[in-house]
Amino acid sequence: MDYSKPEALRAQPTYRLTIVDDSDEFVSMMREVLAGRYEVIGIQAESTEDVAEARPDVIMVDLNPRAEKLRVLWRTIGEARAHPMLRHVPIILCAPRVDGSPEVEQALHHPLVQLLTKPFTLDALDAALARAMADKDLAS
Question: Which residues are CB-contacts of 18 (< 8 A; sequence separation ≥ 6)?
């Protein structure tokens, strides 16, 4: 395919990015930035089933580093890895610096989990998403 032609760019597949976040602002920003490349779905997940219903290609968790949220995150990642529809779905954790956070460090040892440190550039976002899709292809 010749990617120098506009038709080829329109023919590229659109992937589904599910963002688990309780802030509409972050989800709206991601929709705008990723328009045409990803279908961005924002959810306030109460359970792993909520995430599975969105049928994501990639899961992004906008992480607030409060201790109780980290415990919920760790449980959710463990449940996602055990869920038949989510076990091969890459997870990108978006978080400010999390120096020494045992929950995040432990989560990063899971296959298909990576950290995107906030604030991030568009290049860093693109690289994280490209890696996630490559990991998904290898895991499938």
Answer: 41, 42, 43, 51, 54, 56, 58, 59, 60
Give me the CATH number covering residue 101. Answer: 3.40.50.2300
Dist CA 76 CA 8 (whole Å): 38
- pTM confidence score: 0.81
pLDDT tens sequence across 18-71: 998 877 899 999 999 999 899 999 988 767 888 899 999 999 988 766 655 666
- Residue 71, sorted as left (phi over 0), alpha (psi -120 to 50) or beta, turns out to be alpha
Q: 94 in a domain, yes or no?
A: yes
The answer, yes or no, to whether residue 1 has pLDDT greater than 50, is no
Give, as one character, the DSSP assignment of residue 13.
P
Whether residue 130 has pLDDT greater than 80: yes
DSSP reduced 3-state for 30 = helix
Main-chain dihedrals φ then ψ at residue 18, nearest 5 degrees? -100, 120
H-run or E-run covering 19 = strand 15-20
Geometric angle at alpha carbon 31, from 27 and 34, rounded to 5°? 130
